[in-house]
Design a protein that fits this description.
With about 280 residues, this protein is of the alpha/beta class. It has two domains: about 80 residues, Rossmann fold (3-Layer(aba) Sandwich), CATH 3.40.50; about 120 residues, Rossmann fold (3-Layer(aba) Sandwich), CATH 3.40.50. The protein contains ten helices and eleven strands. The strands form three sheets. A six-stranded parallel beta sheet has the order 1-11-8-7-5-6. Strands 3-2-4 form a three-stranded parallel beta sheet, with helices on both faces. β5, α7 and β6 form a beta-alpha-beta unit. α6 crosses α7 and α6 packs across α10. It is globular. The chain starts with a strand and ends with a helix. Bound molecules: NADP nicotinamide-adenine-dinucleotide phosphate. The site of NADP nicotinamide-adenine-dinucleotide phosphate has 25 residues, from α10.
Length: about 280
Amino acid sequence: MIIIDGKKVSAEVKEQVAKETKELIKKGVTPGLAVILVGDDPASKVYVNNKKKACELVGFKSYEYKLPAETTQEELLSLVEELNNRKEINGILCQLPLPKGLDENAVIEAISPEKDVDAFHKQNVGRIMIGDYDFLPCTPAGIMEMLKAYDISVEGKDCVVIGRSNIVGKPMSMLLLHQNGTVTICHSRTKNLKEVTKRADILVAAVGIPKFVTADMVKDGAVVIDVGMDRDENGKLCGDVDFENVKDKCSYITPVPGGVGPMTIATLMKNTLKAAKLQNNL
Ligand code: NAP
């Protein structure tokens, strides 16, 4: 059993981004990422802070917009509009979830598709569907990068994704399909979930329930990817997979923390670099 080291792979990706950023800066372009945080959700604050640190590490400029929870839809949309029009800002992301009363879809659609480095805009989602895209969503793309780094081939494999969110489950399934996996998507109405997950050569858990995937749901020798960022009964960060009991059945497994999470941020850096290049015709 090999524990996939997301920290190591993400450090390599960021190193490459930093190298390319240096070259870009020589040409007069410093990639800029704007991050909008509305309200004071503690987990969102941590994510935003990590994104800011990654920007500093690779040589980007980061622009942080912390707005109070009472921010109106109009105020938020007008900030997005302003950022869309600023040349020094190449990527815009609005940390989700938004406080109640704000329309996430409207905000996502307001971000210019060229600056949509999360790849959540419907134009970008559609382009992913047909396999002609500039940006891929950070978490699924980070997972694909991690599989590649460990020479784990998807072609012809039975891939099972638990979860069908627009952010993780659905795009993850699409990227596995692009790599010629045979993909099954499971969700809360799936019958006999265990029977389905037990067929998986590659099992991706994106459920949001701590230690949801137990050893009896996993085939011997499977590759298990844990997207979850949950809290256990003691408030400690854990994943959707019961790591201690599942790990010995796997050929590869990602830990939480130190697996998918760092890859998500590294991919965000890759996307922002690409946005800066595209917007400057470089
Ligand atoms: P989400 O929008 O809440 O989606 C959860 C999915 O799990 C839904 O499709 C739901 O099915 C399914 N589900 C819930 N209960 C189930 C059950 N008993 N059996 C089978 N399926 C079930 O969550 P998300 O945004 O995709 O995030 C999933 C997890 O990944 C969370 O822990 C989140 O914090 C984490 N995450 C991590 C990163 C990272 O960078 N590491 C990034 C994003 C998210 P229905 O559709 O039928 O309701």
